[in-house]
Design brief:
Keywords: Cell membrane, Membrane, Transmembrane, Transmembrane helix
Oligomer: single chain
Strand content: under 5%
Number of strands: 0
GO cellular component, one term: plasma membrane
Helix content: over 70%
Subcellular location: Cell membrane
InterPro entries: Poly_Biosynth_Transport, WzxE
Shape: globular
Protein name: O-antigen translocase
Order of helices and strands: HHHHHHHHHHHHHHHH
């Protein structure tokens, strides 16, 4: 293997390890919070909380104008110039804009609260709850402004500490509220969690000494125009995804009840939270690296293939472990009440293999600056995903939602591949095809066993498949980055 390829693979592994640590800690907190909240609130309470969160997150996605994504680029570019006056100007514009968009979001929720309650819950009983939750839009938008500042200035340590501390304090302040007030404590707990996250974001953000600059309206417009222009289209894409999730939950609530919404939320949370850490950790480094070589189709193709391979090699054993022990995990993380989501989760796990491939391809359009193509690509994907979700739930209940998730990602992989092949001549490498085929075959066998066998017998029969997956991933990763050599060097350095 060439030194260039080995360096690429090693960078992917290094970034995943660093940012994965923060994700892992947050996951541990999520496990604790989810388990306790599930016991205290039950499926109905989890459903109500999920509907509140979906509605406010949707409004945030609309009113934030995508600044949490687009402004990172502006801050980074200013920082790269080494001109602190320029950095101060961009930072001041960002801080002004997040206040404007945060207050806009709060006002929108207050005005629309009766209709939000009607649309979300089928009545206006939750109007006051939405009014109180309106302040969380301001808090979260201000928090994101600080995160953008830290990320753009590459203050990774402060960014990690802000996220970890915010999650920790949020857990500490919210659990007593759930304990004493139950379902009635959902709104206060969400407000306190958002407030604590904002306070800690500002605490760490203020450690970066950037002097504020007075801005008149023309200057604010000039500096903010670039952030908003790119952000709006990306934001619209995100809003469509949130709307798809929101409409799906409303359909489930109206057709099956809030208990099914709670089961749906819990099932997806297990996979998205505990497997999603890999995607989150990798994207932190993958997107800027891909953007740096986007002008060269050959390098971009190579990096995309490397990323897809490493993602599959890392995720493979994790997903197979999920398939084998998912029933046990549901009981531990939630309670036996949530076992009704088991079938759905099993299908979702299989879909994650396809999501890994679609995810790696999806960044190509953003890195190339093809924002409009990215938007329409996502719009089409969300339309057929929503249609499949409704059809799946109508025909097969909760398990149908898992099936629809799998089918949607089959279509998404084909769609993304055709788009970037036609535009940029992309093709998967034989290595990528092989890694996918081996792990997907092992997962398919594990899936069949999990569907037909239960208890200790499942663990015994499936153990060889899990071992095979781990050994294969280790072999392939070691072949790419000399993992054994890296470990030996670390051990030698420690002993020496």
């Amino acid at each position: 293997m060439s030194n260039t390829n080995q360096s690429s693979y090693r960078q992917i592994m290094k970034a995943t390890s660093i940012f994965g640590g923060v994700q892992f800690y947050q996951i541990v907190l999520t496990i604790v919070r989810t388990k306790i909240v599930a016991v205290l609130l039950g499926t109905a309470g989890m459903g109500i909380s999920g509907l509140f969160t979906s509605a406010t997150t949707l409004i945030t996605g609309i009113t934030s104008l995508g600044l949490n994504v687009s402004a990172v680029k502006n801050v980074s570019e200013a920082n790269a110039t080494g001109d602190m006056n320029r950095v101060a100007l961009v930072t001041s514009a960002l801080r002004r804009l997040v206040w404007i968009t945060g207050l806009l979001g709060t006002g929108v929720v207050i005005v629309l609260s009766p209709w939000l309650s009607e649309i979300t819950f089928g009545n206006r009983d939750y109007t006051l709850g939405f009014v109180w939750l309106s302040v969380t839009l301001l808090f979260s938008t201000l928090s994101n402004g600080q995160y953008v500042l830290l990320q753009g200035l590459r203050k990774v340590a402060y960014l990690a500490k802000a996220n970890v501390a915010g999650a920790t304090i949020g857990l500490i302040v919210s659990l007593p509220v759930y304990y004493y007030y139950g379902v009635d404590g959902i709104v206060p707990a969400l407000v306190l969690t958002s407030l604590s996250a904002m306070m800690l974001a500002y605490y760490f953000g203020n450690k970066v000494k950037v002097a504020p600059v007075p801005l008149d309206t023309p200057t604010l417009f000039k500096e903010g125009k670039g952030m908003v222009k790119m952000g709006v289209l990306l934001s619209l894409s995100g809003v469509i995804g949130l709307a798809t999730s929101y409409v799906t939950r409303i359909y489930i609530s109206n057709t099956g009840g809030v208990e099914d919404v709670g089961l749906f939320n819990a099932g997806f949370a297990i996979v998205n939270t505990y497997v999603g850490m890999v995607f989150t950790a990798m994207s932190t480094d993958y997107y800027p690296r891909l953007s740096a070589v986007a002008h060269d189709d050959g390098q971009a193709r190579s990096l995309l293939n490397h990323q897809a391979e490493m993602t599959l090699l890392i995720l493979g054993p994790i997903l197979i472990l999920f398939l084998i022990f998912i029933k046990f995990a549901i009981v531990v993380l939630y309670s036996t009440q949530f076992l009704a989501s088991l079938g759905m989760v099993q299908w979702i796990v299989m879909a994650i293999f396809l999501k890994a491939v679609a995810w790696a391809m999806g960044f190509m359009l953003m890195a190339k600056g093809a924002t409009k193509v990215f938007f329409y690509n996502e719009l089409i994907a969300n339309v057929y995903t929503l249609a499949m979700n409704i059809a799946g739930y109508y025909l097969f209940g909760l398990e149908g939602l898992g099936i629809s998730f799998l089918v949607a990602y089959v279509v998404a992989v084909v769609q993304n591949f055709l788009v970037i092949r036609n535009r940029y001549g992309f093709a998967f490498s034989p290595e990528c095809y092989r890694v996918f085929a081996v792990h997907f075959l092992i997962a398919a066998l594990s899936f069949v066993l999990a569907k037909n066998i239960e208890g200790n017998l499942l663990y015994v029969v499936s153990a060889p498949l899990l071992i095979l997956s781990v050994v294969y991933s280790y072999y392939e990763i070691n072949r790419r980055i000399d993992l054994k050599g890296i470990v030996n060097k670390l051990v030698f350095k420690r002993n020496g």
